[in-house]
Design brief:
2 copies of one chain form a homodimer.
Chain A lengths: L3 H17 L5 H6 L7 H13 L3 E2 L8 E2 L1 H11 L7 H12 L5 H16 L2 E5 L8 E10 L2 E8 L4 E7 L6 H15 L7 H16 L3 H13 L6 E4 L13 H12 L1 H8 L7 E4 L11 E10 L2 E11 L4 H21 L3
Antiparallel strand pairs in A: 1-2, 3-7, 3-10, 4-5, 5-6, 8-9, 9-10
Helix pairs in contact in A: 1-3, 1-4, 5-6, 5-12, 6-12, 7-8, 8-9
Chain B binds a DNA duplex (30 and 30 nucleotides) through helix 3.
DNA sequence: GTTAGCACTCTGATATACCGAGTGCTAAAT
DNA sequence: ATTTAGCACTCGGTATATCAGAGTGCTAAC
């Protein structure tokens, strides 16, 4: 169990290190106005804190820096109640006040806002197309043997794909197929489309349509494409301004990661709604071993839609990021709800 | 006028510097098998070449490196006829052989291939949506007051946007409007949509449709969105492996540039079709002052569609990049032509 | 329990010497 | 008249030594 004084020292060290990115020494802490002990006393306490695993020394005659455990304790027990500046709140509000034509745009823009506000990198997961339901399918011919197949979901999301038919397929048949699909598949979740196609629709098509196999394989391809989920980034390079990224090789590694959407999305996703903080190795992902990730979820009608994430050094401004994300995710949920009824 | 010997020395220096990224000295050149003069002789020639502006010295006791003018001369007069390896050609062919559902995918993928093949960064401009013509407009209702507006072009490109109607607008009216639009605007180039809307369509709508102003403003918004052109990147971080990018600040600057699609597209675009090489300051763009950009255009039915660009250090493997781009742009044009008839 | 004092440790900056690669010039060789 | 060997000179980069500053840990005094 930590004493009152140890708590305040730990907090002071984290706060100082977060802003200055340099090991903090006993004198520095002792000089703070809210600290009324001599450096020597502080040193003793620091030594104890180190023994307990909350602090570590880069080398024997430097100051201390928080360990992962130190950050974790700080986040769990010491966080000053978040004080979002009026300025920030107005900023968020006005940024979100711009009118958007698509919820996709809102989400995309939110990544930018978050990165600007925090000067870390933000990673935002869009709604899972996957879970939304089919509204309508259309085939629009654009040349003799080609058409654009458009899939619209109930959330207003649109996927499209150019398909090619052998000459032998007749326009009338295509139309018939589309009609059947719309009749049978409306309201079906996107992720079920494929299995439904093969189970129910295949046989129906067989009965009513010429060139059944061709149509079937085209459709299967279209549905196979409908799976990916969107990942948006804001301030990809913000993270480079952190002193821990002065090595170009690290830079490259992390930047390349950012191109791997599916990998990132797996990394960002959380099961529980609400706020999650993962510090360093808690991410369970080597490239993030000295990074922290704070995520919040946003909702529509109380249902999970997507995740907002902030990625920064473990030495992160947790209080600010947390309150920012908390506030922002709520504002965003509100906005989405308003624009969708 | 340069002597035969000076030419071969210049060529040797460029070739050497391109591969080793280090100033090359007289001894190094003299040792080459195709060079039969002593270092001293080479030194004299180098000194002359420097005086003429083709070479420069990083400092008095280093070797020489090519100046911008040196590279330019090399590119214009000394390039060994491009020798694309069979390996590369096969690589290109097999990579392009994957079947794509959309020409957009081909283009996107081509950026990846080019960056892999060159280990520089590739920047590819997609077809100008702008120039293609309207095929069809659709409104698909997804809730009481919302609909997805879908714009399909003759090139198979699809843009979509969620729009919101006041409750008072009736479904029948929306349908009527869509019919009018399709009748009047089919075949109209995208960039003309806005003006045609205000000139011809506005009055027609006024006559036939209730709530004319609302519909009009919604449509205006939709058409206003149809302007951007797509920029694809491959190997954004490849450029970081160049020794000239060991400074994180430069890295950030260039990487941030890559996020500014419209800026980049302006920078990459060329008027003339065919191959263009811009070396360093020839780019007329400060951030590219020590980079070279090689571009080629690809076509459909002989008409300009887009641009393939390779961005690397001025110390670039010009012969390889040039022949690669030349070959690739032709292959790609062929592919597009084949898949679009 | 707290703190002053002091020896000790380690980093980072600065100065110095030195090696190697390369040049430019002169004089000899071809 | 070229070409080349020889040599003094220049400069960057590395290695080494030195030093100041910041910090710790311990002991002894308060």
């Amino acid at each position: 169990m930590l004493t009152e004084r140890q708590l305040s020292i730990l907090k002071a060290i984290v706060d100082d290190y977060v802003t200055n990115a340099e090991p903090v020494g006993s004198r520095t802490i002792s000089k703070r106005s809210d600290m009324s002990f001599s450096p020597a006393t502080i040193r003793n306490e620091m030594s104890d804190l180190e023994e307990m695993g909350f602090l570590e020394k880069p080398h024997s005659s430097a100051g201390r820096i928080p360990s992962q455990k130190g950050y974790r304790y700080y986040v769990d027990h010491l966080l000053s109640p978040a004080q979002l500046s009026v300025n920030d709140m107005q900023d968020i509000r006005s940024q979100l006040a711009v009118k958007f034509h698509e919820s996709e745009q809102i989400i995309q823009h939110s990544a930018k806002i978050l990165s600007q506000l925090t000067s870390y990198t933000s990673i935002v997961l869009g709604p899972e197309v996957f879970e939304s339901k089919l509204k309508q399918i259309q085939m629009i011919p654009i040349s003799k043997d080609k058409a654009v197949c458009i899939v619209v979901t109930d959330s207003g999301h649109v996927e499209n794909q150019t398909v090619q038919f052998p000459e032998s397929v007749e326009a009338a048949d295509v139309e018939k197929v589309v009609n059947i699909l719309n009749e049978k598949l409306q309201g079906v979740p996107i992720y079920q489309l494929q299995s439904r196609l093969s189970q129910e629709i295949a046989s129906v098509l067989k009965q009513h349509v010429n060139r059944y196999e061709t149509m079937y394989s085209v459709l299967r391809d279209v549905f196979a494409e409908q799976k990916q989920e969107k990942v948006y980034y804001g301030g990809k390079t913000n993270i480079l301004s952190q002193p821990e990224f002065h090595d170009v090789k690290r830079v490259r590694a992390i930047l390349n990661l950012f191109e791997e959407d599916s990998l990132m999305s797996r990394q960002i996703r959380t099961d529980n709604t609400g706020l999650t903080i993962r510090i360093g190795e808690e991410n369970d992902f080597k490239p993030f071993d000295d990074l922290s990730l704070v995520t919040a979820t946003y909702t529509l009608g109380g249902k999970y839609i997507g995740t907002l994430g902030i990625l920064g050094p473990t030495r992160m401004e947790y209080p600010r990021v947390i309150s920012l994300l908390d506030h922002f995710s709520k504002d965003m949920s509100k906005l989405l709800n308003r624009s969708s009824d």
